[in-house]
């Protein structure tokens, strides 16, 4: 069993913040109780330099990397471990159906220029993202979350 420091070690600044976060105060609970699948997915997200967000469990708790933290602006670091429906409430009417579909069907989506109205720098702005929402599976093969891989394409 790896310690939080070891699990989040390769995660840059966000990984350091994740190692220091009291996960027992989140829907995910203490890191010691996390499944191997969740741990593996977190390692994948943190080791990538491409923006990635992992949503896990019925509360859609957020785990993400440094590249993604730049996309959500001043919502970081408070978003770590928090329900994405709270963090991205202003865009949930667009994001919710994509995430729900990945969870329900186990099929990934791809949208090349998804329009979102986001408040990530103290004001509402129009932004566009190329994004995929893919099912993330737990140790038993059930869909336990969604892996979001995205890049901003706003011009």
Commentary on this structure:
- With 155 residues, the protein is an alpha+beta fold.
- It contains 6 helices and 5 strands, in the order αααββαααβββ.
- The protein has helices spanning 4-7, 12-20, 36-47, 66-72, 84-87, 92-105; strands at 52-56, 61-64, 109-119, 124-137, 143-152.
- Strands 2-1-5-4-3 form a 5-stranded antiparallel beta sheet, with helices on both faces.
- It is globular.
- The mean pLDDT is 96.
Short characterization:
By secondary structure, the chain is α+β, with helices and mostly antiparallel strands. The chain is built from 6 helices and 5 strands; from the N terminus they run αααββαααβββ.
Q: Give the total of beta strands.
A: 5
Order of helices and strands: HHHEEHHHEEE
- The shape, in one word, is globular
Radius of gyration: 15 Å
Helix content: 25-40%
> Average pLDDT, to the nearest integer?
96
Distance between the termini: 45 Å
The biggest sheet, with number of strands, parallel, antiparallel or mixed sense and barrel status, is: 5 strands, antiparallel
Structural class computed from helices and strand pairing = alpha+beta
Low-confidence stretches: none
Tally of individual helices: 6
Order of strands side by side in the largest beta sheet?
2-1-5-4-3
How much of the sequence lies in strands comes to 25-35%
Q: Characteristics of this structure?
A:
alpha+beta, 5-stranded antiparallel beta sheet, 6 helices, 5 strands, 32% helix
Could you outline the blueprint of secondary structure elements for this entry?
Layout: H1 4-7, H2 12-20, H3 36-47, E1 52-56, E2 61-64, H4 66-72, H5 84-87, H6 92-105, E3 109-119, E4 124-137, E5 143-152
Antiparallel strand pairs: 1-2, 1-5, 3-4, 4-5
């Amino acid at each position: 069993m790896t310690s939080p420091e070891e699990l989040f070690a390769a995660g840059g600044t966000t990984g350091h913040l994740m190692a220091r976060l009291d996960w027992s105060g989140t829907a995910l609970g203490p890191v010691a109780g996390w499944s191997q699948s969740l741990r593996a997915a977190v390692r994948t997200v943190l080791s990538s330099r491409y923006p990635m967000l992992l949503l896990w469990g019925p509360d859609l708790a957020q785990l993400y990397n440094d590249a993604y933290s730049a996309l959500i602006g001043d919502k970081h670091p408070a978003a770590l471990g928090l329900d994405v429906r709270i963090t991205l409430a202003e865009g949930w009417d667009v994001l919710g159906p994509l995430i729900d579909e990945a969870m329900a069907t186990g099929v990934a989506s791809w949208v090349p220029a998804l329009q979102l109205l986001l408040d990530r720098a103290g004001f509402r702005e129009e932004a566009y993202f190329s994004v995929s929402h893919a099912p993330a599976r737990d140790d038993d093969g059930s869909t336990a979350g969604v892996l979001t891989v995205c890049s901003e394409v706003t011009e």
